[in-house]
Design brief:
By secondary structure, the chain is α+β, with helices and mostly antiparallel strands. It has one domain. The protein has helices at about 1-25, 60-75, 80-95, 100, 105-115, and strands at about 25-35, 35-40, 45-50, 50-55. Strands 1-2-4-3 form a four-stranded mixed sheet, sandwiched between helices. Helix 2 packs across helix 3 (about 80-95) and helix 2 crosses helix 5 (about 105-115). It is globular. It binds zinc ion (ZN).
Length: about 120
C-alpha cells in the first residue's frame, strides 16, 4: 500500500514537472522508449525518475543509460533515492568531468542494465 502511494506521488511529481516543461516551451518531442515515456527537452542534463526519462540528448546510448536508471528504480524500490538519486546529484556537482561521474558504480550499473 505505502509503495503504491509513493509510486503514485513520484509519477504525479514527474507529470507536474513535464507539464511545466511543456508550459515553458522546453519540450521538443515525446516518444515511447521501450515501455516508458521519454521526454526530449531543452535542458542541459538528463534524469530518470518516477518511470519517466527526461533528457536533453535524444541518442540511443543516452536513452539506454537513463532506462538503466529506471531499472535501478524498480530494483532498489525505496532505496533508489538513497543509493542512486542523491549520490548521483552530488556526483554530478562535485565530479571533475563527465568521465569521473560516469565511473561511479551506479552510473556503470545503469549503463550495463540499460543495454540488456
Ligand atoms: Zn546516469
Amino acid at each position: 500500500m505505502i509503495l503504491s502511494v509513493i509510486s503514485a506521488a513520484k509519477t504525479t511529481l514527474m507529470l507536474i514537472g513535464i507539464c511545466l516543461l511543456g508550459a515553458t516551451g522546453k519540450i521538443d518531442s515525446v516518444i515511447m522508449y521501450r515501455d516508458v515515456l521519454a521526454v526530449h527537452a531543452d535542458i542541459d542534463n538528463a534524469f530518470a525518475y518516477g518511470g519517466f526519462i527526461v533528457s536533453g540528448v535524444n541518442s540511443e546510448n543516452f536513452l539506454s543509460h537513463e532506462y538503466g536508471h529506471l531499472i535501478q528504480e524498480r530494483k532498489y524500490g525505496l532505496l533508489y533515492e538513497f543509493l542512486v538519486v542523491v549520490p548521483s546529484l552530488i556526483s554530478a556537482m562535485v565530479s571533475e568531468n563527465a568521465a569521473a561521474h560516469g565511473a561511479r558504480w551506479f552510473e556503470i550499473e545503469a549503463t550495463e542494465q540499460g543495454r540488456q
